[in-house]
Amino acid sequence: MSDADGQERTEDATARKREQAREKGQVPRSRELASVAVLVSGAVGLMWFGEGLSSALGRIMTRMFTLSREEVFDVHLLLMVITNAIWEVFLPLVIILVFLFTAALIGAAGLGGVRFSSEAAMPKLSKMNPLSGLKRMFGSQSWVELIKSILKVGLVASVAGYLIYSSLDDFFQLSIETFPANYFHALDILLNFVLLICCSLLVVVVIDVPYQIWHFSDQLKMTKQEIKDEYKDSEGKPEVKGRIRMLQREMAQRRMMADVPQADVVITNPEHYSVALRYDPKLDAAPIVIAKGGDHLALKIREIANKHNIDIVPAAPLARAIYYTTELEQQVPDGLFVAVAQVLAYVFQLKAYRRGKGQKPILSAAATDIPQELQH
């Protein structure tokens, strides 16, 4: 249950919650996996490298029991003997220890990976609270550990009993063998026992690893309110985001209105839409939409155009087509080139007529001839 609002933790943890847990060093771990990895590797290591280690120890014992009188009473000679003895056993011992260290590292990182967290290493007063300790002692996790311990003891005892029963003939054979054959035979039996008993604990690992993954996911579960709060924290509150979008639209509109005086023509559907076009043959490969809007914004574009003596051409089909197919600062589509060219030609002829050159132009019908796929 959630401490804050009493809601049940029924929702899977979000990616952000899992990442925060990893940063704190909270990852699924299986102590059984690490323990069994070390035990099995230790048994295998003794079987592979134990002969070299035992031979080295045998040579050391032989050397120590055959010290001469001079070596016993000469500190320097005795120190040399001890040093040689250490070097004799150093290499096989280091090989076994490195083998065990590698197995321990792989076993510990096999579930959850390698994570270093300074926060996890910091002391926590909550762990020193006796009440918290009692709660952990009698909690569900403690019962799980108790069941695992009972299972391990029962499993080891069963496997050991079976191995002893199945090896009775080998035990009887030891009594009639001569030294040192019986000695090596006994070691072989013992190492096989150790390896098989350690491998039997893999049954516990197979059970424990999925449980630890499930238990970790269950601990990270969240309430619906926690997910909503996390979404608000990461994405922002809806009202704040709405306010930001509104301010962004207002800024974009102000920039757009500031560009209207640069237009060569404003094409309108007199009731609803206005589109401002710029065409500079030296800069633009085709006419560019520098402003567009509907209803109140369309009226504002026309007001600015009138204030700066920009020609306004009513061409409803063309205005709608440009409004719906072209974004700001983009060229008009290829299918509208002919219609836009007729409008620009009309505007340029109209400007010449006002200067007293030529006759008053008439807008060509091609200005409203819009391809079917571009009509709106």
UniProtKB/TrEMBL annotation:
Sequence intervals crossing the membrane: 33-50, 93-114, 146-165, 189-214
Entry-linked InterPro entries: FlhB, T3SS_substrate_exporter, T3SS_substrate_exporter_C
Keyword Transcription appears in the UniProt entry: no
Gene3D superfamilies: 6.10.250.2080, secretion proteins EscU
Keyword hit for RNA-binding: no
Keywords: Bacterial flagellum biogenesis, Bacterial flagellum protein export, Cell membrane, Cell projection, Cilium, Flagellum, Membrane, Protein transport, Transmembrane, Transmembrane helix, Transport
Location(s) in or outside the cell: Cell membrane
Stretches the record annotates as Disordered: 1-28
Membrane topology note: Multi-pass membrane protein
GO process terms (BP): bacterial-type flagellum assembly; protein secretion
Annotated GO CC locations: plasma membrane
Xref: NCBIfam families: flhB
UniProt similarity note: Belongs to the type III secretion exporter family.
Role of this protein: Required for formation of the rod structure in the basal body of the flagellar apparatus. Together with FliI and FliH, may constitute the export apparatus of flagellin.
Listed name of the protein: Flagellar biosynthetic protein FlhB
Record organism: Photobacterium aquimaris
